[in-house]
Amino acid sequence: MTQRSETMPWMLFLGVGLGLAMGSFDGAAVQGIFPYIAGGVATSSDHALWALTYFIVNWSVGITLMPWTHARFGARQVFLGACSLATLGSVISASTGNLWILLLSRAMEGMAAGLLVPLSQSLFLRASPATQHGLVMVLWSNAMLVPFFIGPALGGYFAVTSGYRWIFALSVPFWLLAAWIGSGQIREERGPRPPGFDLPGFLLLYAGLMALQIVLDNGEQYGWWHSRFILRTSLMAIAFLSLFAWREATARHPLLRFHYLRQRNYWLGLLLLCLGWALFMGWASLLPLWAEENLGFNGWWGSSILIPIGLAAVPLSILMDRLHGLLGLRRLASACFLLFALAYGTAYLSPMMSLGDLFWPVFLLGLGVGALFVPLTLLILSGVEKEEIPAASTTSNFIRVFSANIGVTLLEVFWTRGTALAQSNMRADVQPLPGLPLPVLVQHLQSLTATLSLDNLLRLSMWIALAAAAVAYLFLISPRRLAATAANSYVEEVERESSSA
């Protein structure tokens, strides 16, 4: 596709943006309702968490498939295929009572969502005037991120009122609407002959990621590397991913290109972006779960704890196109992590608190998320030549999306272990009160220790964010300083346009 006019293709934005938003919604809507999913498929809340993690694994893998599928089948067919796959996955998710079939359908939804992330970005930029690319990126990022802010609350509402399966059932007509509007607005053009598909690389990547995900999901239950099963699966993950890295370095048409990691801004900016995103996704999963299991709120109220994130993130993200020109990318990236640190540092959890007590810390968390993507994405791509932007962006998006699984898993593991440690330390000092039933005392102890463990994790997250802010300010390089070595840098052009604006 090439640019055709100086008008904004609003119907394209509506159709393709709806598909992008639905992909994010399918992932986010389950974040606060793991106990409800557990009841629906007869499993534990820990296993119900896999409905999110397996979605994210396939979301990241789907991103790697987009360049080849786009060249082979065209943008319209890829978009229709992704919408159809997500529709089928939603139908299965809405009707199954089996955990493993649910994970398969969630994998289908995740794969579709992954295809739509880079595809929608490419369609938006190619169909809009160059002078409006800043606005277009704001629209694209909000279409992807807003469902993460409102999805948990809507998912909680449906889980409480009509059953969590209605989340998937009601998403079906929206997927069909997105396919109808979007496909009618995508204009196909004949491009160059598509490169060969790296099937061995794809199989190695998928096998390695699935083995790694099995370790992350089951490690705590089996005792990590004290278990032969976890040890063998870990070795399999290392072997498959190492072979994949070797394959990508030697393949003629690799799925991912890792040579960009030699650039400081690329690997360091990507590390910081993954850190911020992983912490955010971890807390977005744990806070609703804590509110439901330890404070006694239902799925709607527990998930509504995340609503202030959207109230803060959306307005700030709209201003990012101007702010990065005024403050500079390096300072803005550092300020983003300072906002994260302030959010984690001001949040104080107590079993006796109301959800309203967390409004401002969660609001600050939303400001941090709203400021996360623009500066770090542009810093990651600084030094990358313009024609290599799609390949560099595909690699960075793949790594960033999968990092969410690591954040969710690690925070959950540390929360569980911290809770057990606190219970062990407090049990000897707890004395039964006259007239207080023992089950009530045990439940109160569980709530108290789980809250204490989560509060300690908030303090740890604050120090990590402060360290990230210092690293961003001291070690990231301004794109203008890279101009001499990256004369054709896309980001350097964006910086000049922002300054002149």
From TrEMBL:
InterPro entries: MFS (IPR011701), MFS_dom (IPR020846), MFS_trans_sf (IPR036259). The keyword Transmembrane applies. GO terms for molecular function: transmembrane transporter activity. It is found in: Membrane. Pfam families: MFS_1. Residues 12-482 form the Major facilitator superfamily (MFS) profile domain. GO terms for cellular component: membrane. It is a multi-pass membrane protein. Its main location: membrane. SUPFAM superfamilies: MFS general substrate transporter (SSF103473). Keywords: Membrane, Transmembrane, Transmembrane helix, Transport. The keyword Transport applies. The chain crosses the membrane at residues 48-66, 78-101, 107-125, 137-160, 166-184, 196-216, 228-246, 266-287, 299-320, 332-350, 362-385, 397-416, 457-476. PROSITE patterns: MFS (PS50850). This is MFS transporter.
